[in-house]
Amino acid sequence: MARTIDYGSLMHSAMRSLIQKVLTDVQQNGLPGEHHFFITFDTMHPDVEIADWLSDRYPEEMTIVLQHWFQDLDVTDEGFAITLSFADSPEALYVPYDAIRTFVDPSVEFGLRFETQEDDEDDAEDEFDDDSASETTAPDVQQAAEVVSLDQFRK
Questions:
Q1: CA distance to 27, 53, 73, 124, per residue, from 76 (Å)
Q2: Ordered mean pLDDT values, 10 residues apiece, the chain (155 residues)
Q3: 100, β-bridge pairs
Q4: Cβ within 8 Å of residue 63, ≥6 positions away
Q5: Going by C-beta distance under 8 Å and a sequence separation of 6 or more, which residues neighbour residue 43?
Q6: What is the DSSP letter of 147?
Q7: For residue 30, with 0-12 CB atoms within 10 Å meaning exposed, 13-18 middle and 19 or more buried, which class applies?
Q8: Long-range contacts, stretch 7-10, CB < 8 angstroms, 24+ apart
C-alpha cells in the first residue's frame, strides 16, 4: 500500500496548536482588547471533565464563552482547564483540544471548525455512493478549511 500524506490530520494538528498558543498567551497576559472566544466542544469526548449536571444538560456539545469572567486557566499540551460561572456558580472544566469542534473570536471575525469523525465517515459514504470519480482541487481544500459563520454566535 502506498504511503500518503494525511493533510487533514496535519491541518487539524496545526489548528489545535494555534488554539494552544492563543490560550497560553491569554493565560499569561489576559485577554487583549475586545477579544473573546466561543469554544464549542464534544461533551461526550472521554477526556472532557465537566460537572454531571452540565453533561446532562448538554449531552452532545456545549459552547463556552471566555470573555468577562473566568479563572484558573491552565493550558497544557493536551488541552485546557478553566473555571467558568454558570448561574453565578463557579464550575471547573477540562477540555482536550481534540474535543473542540469550533473556536471563534468574533471580535476579529476569526473562526475554526473541526470536522468530526462522523462527518468524515458521511463524506466517505457519499463518495462511494457517487458512481462518478471526483478530484479534489485547491478550491475544494480551501472550502473545507473555511471559517465558521459568526451569525450563529451573534445576539
A1: 11, 25, 10, 33
A2: 85 90 92 89 92 89 88 92 87 92 89 69 42 35 44 55
A3: 41
A4: 38, 39, 40, 102, 153
A5: 50, 54, 55, 58, 59, 60, 61, 62
A6: P
A7: exposed
A8: 7/141, 8/115, 8/120
